[in-house]
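ARCHIVE CARD
CATEGORY: sequence design from structure
SOURCE FIELD: tokenized fold
FIELD CONTENT:
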């Protein structure tokens, strides 16, 4: 019987072993992005921007042109690259500390201008790289290094920022969706969302934003299976999944 290869490493992925913790969602997302780039045939025209945070070494894992950005400045760098190279497909890949804290101004203004870029936002509700401190997206009651008794607004610790909802309220963005990577079904849906976001940029439609809820077992002090359950049962209560804005529903 002749064997047929039906599953292989994307061409856009390098052979470099990632340093992510067991159960982390970053590795899954890296593969999704690589598969989408391969399927759209845009490998030679893509420029990715790596953040400060857990994905700081993303340039080692994708075989495409990459740029590094200072903490929180991915949207600003993406804007400059896209305006200098309008023929390029430019995307940013950011965590919640990078995008929703120090980078919030750049994020909002790039979206408000309708820059023709794609932003992938990884929300794991914590500062993963620096030791598990409270992030802008940390949910109420969540225990972190800086909220040892659980995040509590009465202690002036604030409420979790809902970034997709904020972006979708602006006039210019064309596509905003929140997904997760906890199961086969959710991974396939996330791939569909990221593929649409890239396709909209290829077609020159404008700014697109995909938020992905991702598990962080190490800083949550959970086993990987427990972390998946926490995303599905707890995070989605605060960060509901779905499409928040879609000006081009006919684009798949």
């Amino acid at each position: 019987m002749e064997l047929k290869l039906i599953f292989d490493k994307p061409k856009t992925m390098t052979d470099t072993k990632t340093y992510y913790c067991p159960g982390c969602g970053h590795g899954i997302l890296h593969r999704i992005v690589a598969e989408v780039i391969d399927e759209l045939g845009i490998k030679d025209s893509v420029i990715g921007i790596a953040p400060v945070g857990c994905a700081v070494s993303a340039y080692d894992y994708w075989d495409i042109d990459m740029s590094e950005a200072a903490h929180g400045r991915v949207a600003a760098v993406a804007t400059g690259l896209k305006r200098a190279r309008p023929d390029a497909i430019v995307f940013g890949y950011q965590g919640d500390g990078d995008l929703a804290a120090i980078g919030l101004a750049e994020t909002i203004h790039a979206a408000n201008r309708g820059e023709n870029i794609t932003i992938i936002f990884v929300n794991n509700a914590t500062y993963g790289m620096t030791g598990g401190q409270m992030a802008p997206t940390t949910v109420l009651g969540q225990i972190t290094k800086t909220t040892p008794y659980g995040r509590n607004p009465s202690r002036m610790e604030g409420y979790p920022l809902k970034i997709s909802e904020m972006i979708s309220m602006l006039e210019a963005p064309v596509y905003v969706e929140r997904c997760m990577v906890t199961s086969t079904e959710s991974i396939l849906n996330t791939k569909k969302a990221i593929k649409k976001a890239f396709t909209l940029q290829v077609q020159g439609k404008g700014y697109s934003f995909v938020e992905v809820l991702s598990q962080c077992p190490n800083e949550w002090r959970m086993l990987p299976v427990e972390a998946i359950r926490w995303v599905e049962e707890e995070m989605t209560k605060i960060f509901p999944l779905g499409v928040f804005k879609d000006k081009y529903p006919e684009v798949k």
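CARD ANNOTATION: Helices lie at 26-40, 74-84, 96-102, 104-113, 163-168, 184-202, 217-220, 224-238. Residues 184-202 form the longest helix (19 residues).
SHELF: design records, drawer C
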